[in-house]
Amino acid sequence: MELLEPTREAFRLLFTGDAGLWRIIMTSLVCSVTALVLIAPPSVALGFLITKVVFPGRRALVVLVQALLSFPTVVIGLVIYMLLSRQGPLGFLKLLFTPEAIIVGYMVIAFPVLVVFTLSAVQGADPRVYETARSLGANRWRAALTTLFEVRFGVMAAVVNGFGRVVSEVGCAIMVGGNIEGLTRNIPTAIALETSKGEFAQGIALGFVLIVLALGVNVALSVLQGEGGMK
Amino acid sequence: MSNPSLELRSLAKSFPQRELLRGIDLVLKAGGSYVLTGDNGCGKTTLLRIVAGLETANGGMLRFEGTAIDLDDYPEALRHKLVYVHQQPYLFQTSIAHNIAYGLRMRGVPKGRRELLVGEAIAWAGVGHLGNVLPHKLSGGEKQRVALARAKVLNPRLLLLDEPTANLDNDARRQTLALIETLRHEDVTVMIATHDREIIAMPHVQCLHLEAGRVDAL
């Protein structure tokens, strides 16, 4: 297989601002970021509550959320497809094969990652954090926010991992998005399609973007952590 | 120094397989300084934590400045009147000034007033030279002094200090003792759980001893 020429062509596509390629990249970014913005607050809150509040079924909920982590994304895509299809209970929303459907799928995929990582971060927090905040006059809500702030690097890691999971996800995005050019085609679905057609240049270019994104968010996390992340 | 600040009647606390507090009866006069002594594990910390609303009691009555407190539904307003300082205080991972300002922010103190009070508290604790050093780089004594400043700045009615000089080297212990000594001039009731003979020997403090789940005045 000739690698040099497709790679050269990939970089030409990237750096000449090929409209089709950049639309795919933007679709990926918009869907991933929107999903995270929508699902991160409730997931982080749930992760905190599971750790701090004793309620019946807490253990079962933790097991369920952990199990969701290992659910194949294509199965999640299948369930959402059935829900959003014309005959499905949510068919009236007419979301199937739209970016919104991908966002819904990404939210479901990112949810357990965010909850489990937050749960782990809050569990690892010093119990004196919450008590100190309460003793200094913080109400429960403010003390919870203070605790989350103290474990902010763990919460940031949750978001970065959630982003990594959804931005590279292919099964669910193809099923509920339909891989429609100019509308729902994103980086992983485009790589899968172009590779199956033997068009490696775009696949390599998009693969390169994915790697840069993965590296970029992790470098950004590391910079944000700075000295505070190291003890 | 006449009205009761804190009144405990028949306060009890049990853990599985252990009855720790068996009916504590105690009255702290407003503005008084008290030390609570007792063997390790006798329940000194637990008693302070119950008073601070960080732990529940199994029974008994708590009255603060004449008002009966529901120990099962600890009132938020009371958290603005008393402060508990851990044996090894936790400092939030932010600047010393932010740490000291935390409780003031929770009380809605305006920024200008807050900065003034924080500056005074930093000077009182003698931690001004530490500047913006992050808490995890402070020594145990410096952390203790910041925690004391963070508590004192709130001008609490009751200050609960849990072993404030434990695990400190001599210099740090001396500096902490000097701060505790100055509290006698403040309008605050202080209760210190401690083994430190120098605190116990302070002339203005009254000694209480916790043994077999009960408190006796010495």
Would you write up a description of this structure?
The complex is a heterodimer of chains A (231) and B (218). In chain A, helix 2 runs parallel beside helix 5 (99-123), helix 5 (99-123) packs antiparallel against helix 9 (171-177) and helix 6 packs across helix 7 (140-150). Chain A is built from 11 helices and no strands. Chain A has 231 residues and is mainly α. Chain B has a single domain, classed as Rossmann fold (3-Layer(aba) Sandwich). Chain B has helices at residues 44-51, 96-106, 111-125, 140-152, 170-182, 197-200; strands at residues 4-15, 18-29, 33-37, 59-64, 67-69, 82-85, 158-162, 189-193, 205-211, 214-217. Chain B has a 6-stranded mixed sheet, with helices on both faces. A 4-stranded antiparallel sheet of chain B has the order 2-1-4-5, with helices on one face. In chain B, strand 9 (205-211) and strand 10 form a beta hairpin. The model of chain B has no long low-confidence stretch (mean pLDDT 93).
